Amino acid sequence: MPNNYLISIVGPTAIGKTALSIKLAQYFNTDIISADSRQFYKEMQIGTAAPTSSELQAARHHFIHHKSIKDDYNVGAFEKDAISRLNDLFTNHNIVIMVGGSGLYVDAVSNGLDDFPEVDKSIRNQLNAKLESEGLQSLQEQLKTLDPISYKDIALDNPQRVIRALEICIGSGKPYSSFLKQARVQRNFKTISIGLTADREKIYNRINKRVEIMMKSGLLDEVKSLEDKADLNALNTVGYKEIFNFLKGEWTLEFAISEIQKNSRRFAKRQLTWFKRNKDTYWFDFESDIETIIKHIKTKIKG
C-alpha cells in the first residue's frame, strides 16, 4: 500500500474548495495541485475565480496561470505534467492536496485517462462542419440518440466535449460512455476524496453572489482585453462567452450577467452529477469545521 496520499477536494463551483485546500495545505505543511482546467490560463483570472495573490502566498500552488490561452493544452498533457510534479512533491511530502472543479482532470490524476480507440480524422472534420452549419443543438440531439448516458453527463455547452463524444460513437460504433472507467491505472499514491456540498438554494445563492463580485472586480474589462481572441477554445467558458455576446451588441449587460449566473448554476449541477459517481468520496457540508475534516483524513490514512 502506498505511503503517499493525495487529498482531492471536489465539489460545485463557489462552494469553498480553494479556502479549504489552503487550510489543509497549511495544516499538513504541503503543496496544492490545481485541477481546474480554466485556472491554468494566465489571461483568465477574474472569470475563473482563480486564487488571489494572498491565497497563492498562503500555500504553494502548482498549475495556476502556467499556460496561455494560445497554448494547445489538454487533459492528457495535464495528466502527464501533474503525475510528474506529484512524483517530485512526494519526495518531500507524504501528503499533497489537489483541488479543482474539472471532473475529467481530477479523474485523470487519480485514476488515469480512459483508453479510446483511434478514429478517422475526417469524422471530426464533418462534425465541425455540422457545428458551423447547423449549430451546437444539432450535435447535442445526435449525441442524445447515440449515447444517452454521455448526453446526461458531459458538458453539453462545450462543443469540443460534444464533438469528442460523437466522434468516438460514430468511429467505433459503440457509445462513448462504454469506454469510460474500464480499468484503473496503478498510482504510487492513494487518493482520499473530500467533497464539499450544500443544499441547492445555498449553492445557487453563492454562485449568484460570486458573479456579482466578479463584475465588481473587473470581469468586463478582463473580457474586453480578450475580445480579439474570442474564437479560442479556452475562452468558450462561462463568464467569458456571455460577455462576448454583450460586446457584440447581441445582449444587454444585465442579461449577460444573468446568463453567467444561470450557466454557472447549470455547471454546478453537472459537477455534482460527475463527482457523486465516485462512491469513495466523503461529503461534508461546506460549513463543516476544519477539525472534523482533518480528523476524517487522519482516520483514512490510519486505515
TrEMBL record:
> Transmembrane segments in this chain: where?
none
Record's keyword annotation contains ATP-binding: yes
Tell me which Gene Ontology terms the entry assigns under biological process. tRNA modification
Task: Please list where the region (Interaction with substrate tRNA) is annotated.
Answer: 36-39, 160-164
Residues bound to substrate are 13-18
Identify the Pfam families for this entry. Answer: IPPT
Reactions performed catalytically: adenosine(37) in tRNA + dimethylallyl diphosphate = N(6)-dimethylallyladenosine(37) in tRNA + diphosphate
Q: Which cofactor does it need?
A: Mg(2+)
First and last residue of the signal peptide: none
Record's keyword terms, sorted: ATP-binding, Magnesium, Nucleotide-binding, Transferase, tRNA processing
Interaction with substrate tRNA, annotated site positions: 102, 124
MF-aspect GO terms: ATP binding; tRNA dimethylallyltransferase activity
Please give the SUPFAM superfamilies that the UniProt record associates with this protein. P-loop containing nucleoside triphosphate hydrolases
User: Where does the source fall among the domains of life?
Assistant: Bacteria
Give the EC number.
2.5.1.75
Is Transmembrane given among the entry's keywords?
no
Stated family:
Belongs to the IPP transferase family.
* Chain's role: Catalyzes the transfer of a dimethylallyl group onto the adenine at position 37 in tRNAs that read codons beginning with uridine, leading to the formation of N6-(dimethylallyl)adenosine (i(6)A).
Spell out the subunit comment.
Monomer.
For this protein, the record's HAMAP family field holds: IPP_trans
Q: What is this protein called?
A: tRNA dimethylallyltransferase
